[in-house]
């Protein structure tokens, strides 16, 4: 059965998993709404509750606008489907997502993108700067991973996790980024911050004249405050809910 447009909760799916599926589907549609997709490529995953490290991810071949809660794939850390589906996952996504979900219990959602501004910044040797409002919020929060080609192979997992360390942003040099946080809402907000930082850095770089640098202490303070707001308040939840309302005002989503 083609499940592309199936929207109702399957009988075998419990309420907790269904709520996660709905939230993840919203996240896919928001990434599409903001124009951050790479056609049918890239991936967003959300870890399911429990000790098995199973997670949800998009069916390969569907546009993000075609993702529904019920057509998301449930897979294990090897990318094996745990429930029947006409679709398969994107092999290039399993190494990255399974590595993070297998190693970092504090990360429940991972978003991978390579928008044009992000791709431009991560191509530069210096990576992200911290001299603008959004870039300052990323100070000390980024791990950098050397490009090894398309992320298909298990042997790269350990090196990616070593590059990430205890951070929540992984720059895949010459490629893109992966961000991960303790919820879908927090991960989406972090992605938005990284995207805005990349846009501002590209715009500033296109202008003549010298940048006005921020002191490291100021950037560190901004980053710590943002991390605290995300960790200790409903800041990211409020932001995500507002973006979903904006999305729903313009798109008819039946779930």
Structure description:
This protein is α+β, with helices and mostly antiparallel strands and 255 residues long. The protein has a single domain (15-206, 217-250), classed as L-fuculose-1-phosphate Aldolase (3-Layer(aba) Sandwich). It is 42% helix and 12% strand. It contains 8 helices and 7 strands; from the N terminus they run αβββαβααβαββααα. Strands 3-2-1-4-7-6-5 form a 7-stranded mixed beta sheet, with helices on both faces. A hairpin with a 7-residue loop joins strand 1 (43-47) and strand 2 (55-57). Helix 3 (116-123) crosses helix 6 and helix 6 packs across helix 8 (235-250). The longest helix has 23 residues, at 184-206. 39% of the residues are buried. Residues 1-5 have low confidence and may be disordered.
**Strand portion:** 5-15%
Q: What structural category do the secondary elements indicate?
A: alpha+beta
Annotated CATH architecture: 3-Layer(aba) Sandwich
Largest sheet: 7 strands, mixed
Helix percentage: 40-55%
- Low-pLDDT stretches are 1-5
Task: Sum up the overall morphology in one term.
Answer: globular
Q: What's the name of the CATH homologous superfamily?
A: Class II aldolase/adducin N-terminal domain
Mean pLDDT across all residues, rounded?
94
In which order are the strands of the major sheet placed? 3-2-1-4-7-6-5
The tally of strands reads 7
Query: What is the N-to-C order of secondary-structure elements (H for helix, E for strand)?
Result: HEEEHEHHEHEEHHH
- Helix segment tally: 8
Could you please say which CATH topology applies here? L-fuculose-1-phosphate Aldolase
Question: What's the N-to-C terminus distance?
Answer: 20 Å
Query: What is the CATH first-level class name?
Result: Alpha Beta
Radius of gyration: 18 Å
Q: How many structurally independent domains?
A: 1
């Amino acid at each position: 059965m083609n499940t592309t447009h199936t929207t109702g909760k399957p009988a075998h799916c419990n309420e907790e998993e269904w709520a996660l599926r709905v939230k993840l589907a919203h996240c896919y549609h928001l990434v599409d709404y903001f124009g951050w997709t790479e056609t049918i490529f890239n991936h967003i995953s959300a870890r399911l509750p429990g000790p098995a490290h199973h997670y949800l991810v998009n069916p390969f071949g569907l546009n993000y606008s075609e993702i529904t809660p019920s057509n998301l794939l449930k897979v294990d850390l090897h990318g094996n489907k745990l429930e029947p589906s006409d679709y398969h996952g994107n092999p290039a996504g399993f190494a990255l997502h399974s590595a993070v979900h297998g190693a970092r219990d504090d990360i429940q959602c991972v978003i991978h993108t390579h928008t044009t501004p992000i791709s431009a910044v991560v191509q530069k040797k210096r990576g992200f700067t911290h001299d603008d409002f959004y870039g300052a919020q990323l100070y000390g929060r980024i791990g950098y991973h050397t490009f090894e080609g398309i992320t298909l192979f298990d042997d790269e997992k350990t090196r990616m996790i070593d590059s990430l360390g205890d951070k929540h942003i992984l720059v895949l040099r010459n490629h893109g980024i992966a961000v991960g946080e303790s919820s879908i809402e927090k991960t989406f907000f972090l992605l938005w911050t990284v995207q805005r930082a990349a846009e501002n850095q590209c715009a500033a770089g296109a202008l003549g004249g010298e940048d006005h640098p921020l002191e490291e202490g100021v950037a560190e303070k901004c980053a710590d405050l943002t991390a605290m707001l995300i960790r200790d308040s409903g800041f990211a939840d409020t932001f995500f809910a507002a973006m979903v309302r904006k999305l729903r005002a313009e798109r008819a989503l039946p779930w």
